[in-house]
Give the backbone structure.
Amino acid sequence: MPFNWLAAVQAIPWGQVIDNTPKLIEATRKLFSKSSKPVPPLEPAAQIPVPQTESGRLERLETLAEANRNELVDLQHDLQESVRLIQVLAEQNAQMVIAIEGLRRRTRLLSWLGAVLLIGLVVAFWQLAHR
């Protein structure tokens, strides 16, 4: 069954695609730039000298806790951006699936109509030939 590319291209909501393209490109750039940045290696806790005083130990733990909190906030922010990007892509994918399903139905209907017309033409020519 041939696929009508012109109908497929016409069924795509190009206005929405064009409107959302800059947002998608920017979000994708941010996501890829963050994921492609080399992560600086963290110093293992064993290599950081342990202070001998109680206040030094407490200060070291507070510094490590603050660094961990900042890293967690950054990771949550990146996760939220990724989720937003995935939601936009999922919505556009759903719209494309709906459009493709409509095209599939239309193609099936046009194929049946074409077959009926072809049968009608064959019958008409046969009747003309046998008169």
User: Anything to note?
Assistant: The radius of gyration is 31 Å. The longest helix spans residues 54-129. The mean pLDDT is 80. The chain has three helices and no strands.
